[in-house]
């Protein structure tokens, strides 16, 4: 499993890549493995406001449907529209082609509440035991 060090991670298994005052958000490699084959993704619209820890969409796989919880507060700038016709990108390339949304962060201090790659890896390896 892959845990890129430059990313931050939420307890709800989403990753965050900071790009200035923007954050790209996606589903972790661990989460996509646990979900199985992703069949659809429901995402917010550009301009929608996200509040940290609130649901902002859902992801459906053959095994289950799971809510997506915002790792950060902010305004949605972009959504990955390719996931509408190719949700398998979440499985095939979770850290690049499978990204979900780009937001303008409302409060960069919220990044301090997220986990480092090392801590996230430790957290998910404990949950597998």
UniProtKB/TrEMBL annotation:
Stored Pfam families: GCV_H
Cofactor: (R)-lipoate
Function: The glycine cleavage system catalyzes the degradation of glycine. The H protein shuttles the methylamine group of glycine from the P protein to the T protein.
Name of this chain's protein: Glycine cleavage system H protein
Subunit structure: The glycine cleavage system is composed of four proteins: P, T, L and H.
Name of encoding gene: gcvH-2
InterPro entries in alphabetical order: 2-oxoA_DH_lipoyl-BS, Biotin_lipoyl, GCV_H, GCV_H/Fam206, GCV_H_sub, Single_hybrid_motif
Annotated source species: Geomonas paludis
Binding note for cofactor: Binds 1 lipoyl cofactor covalently.
